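lol ok so funny story. i was supposed to be doing the assay writeup but got distracted and ended up predicting the structure for this chain instead. priorities right. anyway since i did it might as well share w the group, maybe its usefull for someone
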Amino acid sequence: MFILKNEIQFDLAHYLSDYTGKCSNIHGHRYRLIVKIASETLHQQGQLRGMVDDFGNIKKVLREIEQYFDHKLILEDNAQGRKIGESLTGFEILYFPHRTTAEEISRYIFHMLKERSLHIAGYLQLHCSHPSATPVTAHIKSHV
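and the output, tada:
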């Protein structure tokens, strides 16, 4: 098994709808995404001969993900999220099809990578940290 590893970091604000506690308020986190790309074999011919994939291609895909999420406010795409989003002007808002937990964000990113034909090796890691909180890690298995 050949494995390539790369990572990105981005800052993202969110809140948890229908939640009682601190996370019911809009707040931000620094996310660190670690991705492992795997293949049982290397390319046998052409420009990618001897490679799992082009590091440039992997970095390009990860930069797209970073730019998609970085310094945005992510709101759950429901009536409450839309109402909040409409009340805020001048902000970059992403409407998210799931609750905005680290686990759901990880799963969403996993599917983004699969759509771009990157073969995830076992899992990806999304580390979510906040200055006053213990870092949280969401692992997503490749069979998701």
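Strands lie at 2-14, 27-39, 72-76, 93-96, 120-129, 136-141. The chain has a mean pLDDT of 84.
back to the writeup now i swear
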